[in-house]
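Record 1 of the preview.
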Amino acid sequence: MVMSWILNVLTKNNANSIIYAKTARQMWIELEEQFVQINGAKLYHVRKELCSTSQGADDIASYFTKVKSLWDELDDLDEIPSCTYSYAEQMHKRDQKQKLLQFLMGLNEDYNTVRGNIFMMRPLPSISQVYSMLVQEEK
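->
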């Protein structure tokens, strides 16, 4: 029954590529191998766009939304492998710190004072907290 459902939701060409699988699990694995591959060109493009993104003429909300959508796309393309909880937590903290630094680097010179104050905070605030601070400063 599951095998029939899988075959019925696929295009004819895709269904033909897995029609001889013996189990639904085997079908799923074959589909995963065919379609869940990191797109190197897309990953390159997103990383390059992140490196060149800065606030420019945008307000804080627009700039943050642009950067956040690129981060989300990057997270989707470049998954962190499974690991122990403590290691995953460390990796998440590292990732958040890198995103915070990248966001702050792209801000206009008008925010140098706020940026300096943020760097003096221990521990560094979250991206959401920094965003809130910058929106207040912008107003």
